[in-house]
Amino acid sequence: MAELQLPSNWPRALLLLTFPPLQRWRPRELSVACLPVPLLLLPALQPCASPSPLPARFRPPPADPKESPFLEPAGRNPAEDSKPYASALQEYGAWIMASLPKYIQQTSVYKEELTLYVAPSAIVPVMYFLRDHTNTQYKQVMDICGADYPTRGKRFEIVYHLLSVKYNSRIRVKTYADEVSPVPSVVEVFRGADWYEREAWDMYGIFFSGHPDLRRILTDYGFEGHPLRKDFPLTGYTEVRYDEEKKRVVSEPLQLSQAFRNFDGAASPWEGTGNGIDARAPQFVLQPPKDEAKQEEQKKTEATKK
């Protein structure tokens, strides 16, 4: 019987899994006579003059430790890909700033997003420019939100998020305000800004001058304060609950009130305050039930007096 030589680069792991006693033999020393029947049926066991190339997954690691052992092409580095895009955004922001030198205070590019910083008085003209100019076409306002920075002179930051469907582009416009200075409403430019500005007024107390219907949108009627301000207490000022005696919903002042938000998780804002003071009105205080035995004695005493 003619002997069949195995390729020198035959995967040794496959042979050992099929026939463990082959561990003490080298692949070139194997013959058909010593191979089990399952290996004889493998199509790879054919006479070959030259060794076949080893599959990529069985190739040995490279000799150079600095060389990558992975044979697949490396993916693109997102940071490298964003460099030309960021430079294009910077040029675009510089063009907008040059087009509106009286209104744009500065621009910035962060994480492939362009931001324009404008004064409150410039917000309406800038919005008109971004909506109507041929090179901008930001026809949709996706969101208007606020942020509170109590340490700043103008503590509130108003952020407008715009979308251009034509150019598949987004842009962010930021302005500033405080408790007493209003910001012009952009409802005349974007009708979708109506409810967004109402939400900013409800949550932060940012007043938008010229708004057609500036009132609360998320909190209840008669709500005190603005919940997303940093100086708003975590517990609020009042508690709304259902009163079983009155069979209706009542609003009461909280017994435990927190003066300001304390972000120190290890300390309690009410620690060391003693037993506290009952701040409930007399009509809301429930009297404890009287003892039945004392009630019977009181009835007997009253009957004896009569």
TrEMBL record:
GO molecular function, one term: NADH dehydrogenase (ubiquinone) activity
Residue ranges constituting the NADH:ubiquinone oxidoreductase 30kDa subunit domain according to the UniProt record: 116-237
UniProt keyword annotation of Translocase present: yes
Coarse class of the protein's main subcellular location: mitochondrion
Biased composition (Pro residues): 53-63
A matching Pfam family: Complex1_30kDa
Entries under InterPro entries matching the protein: NADH_DH_suC (IPR010218), NADH_quin_OxRdtase_su_C/D-like (IPR037232), NADH_UbQ_OxRdtase_30kDa_su (IPR001268), NADH_UbQ_OxRdtase_CS (IPR020396)
Positions of region (Disordered): 53-83, 267-306
Reactions catalysed: a ubiquinone + NADH + 5 H(+)(in) = a ubiquinol + NAD(+) + 4 H(+)(out)
Annotated localization: Mitochondrion
GO cellular component labels: membrane; mitochondrion
UniProt keyword list: NAD, Translocase, Transport, Ubiquinone
Biased amino acid composition, Basic and acidic residues: 289-306
Entries under HAMAP family matching the protein: NDH1_NuoC (MF_01357)
Family: Belongs to the complex I 30 kDa subunit family.
Identification of the protein by name: SPOSA6832_04882-mRNA-1:cds
UniProt lineage: Eukaryota, Fungi, Dikarya, Basidiomycota, Pucciniomycotina
